[in-house]
Design goal:
mainly alpha; 87 residues; elongated; Helix-turn-helix transcriptional regulator; Cro/C1-type_HTH
Length: 87
């Protein structure tokens, strides 16, 4: 029997991206300039049409000046992440 991990919460991930961008009052164009990512990529990420790569999220963490865990941690919002106490 194979035990699969829970599905990541991609909605929470896109909401985190939108929250960080809106908190700084950045447009997609401004975030594109700060991150080096295409405006269309950012729109697709924030609207849930793309998942992005580790490189994408790494660039966003640097643009927002936050630990990557602040961005990607929301993937586990609906379950206990691996290695967490009590898991």
């Amino acid at each position: 029997m194979t035990i699969l991990p829970p599905d990541p919460d991609r909605d929470a991930l896109r909401v985190t991206l939108a929250r960080l961008r809106n908190a700084r009052e950045w447009t997609f164009d401004e975030l594109a300039g700060r991150s080096g990512l295409a405006r269309r990529t950012l729109i697709d990420l924030e609207h849930g049409r793309a998942a992005g790569t580790v490189t994408t999220w790494h660039a966003l963490a640097h643009a927002f000046d936050v630990p990557i865990e602040e961005l990607l941690g929301s993937l586990c919002d609906d379950h206990t992440p691996p290695g967490a106490k009590g898991a």
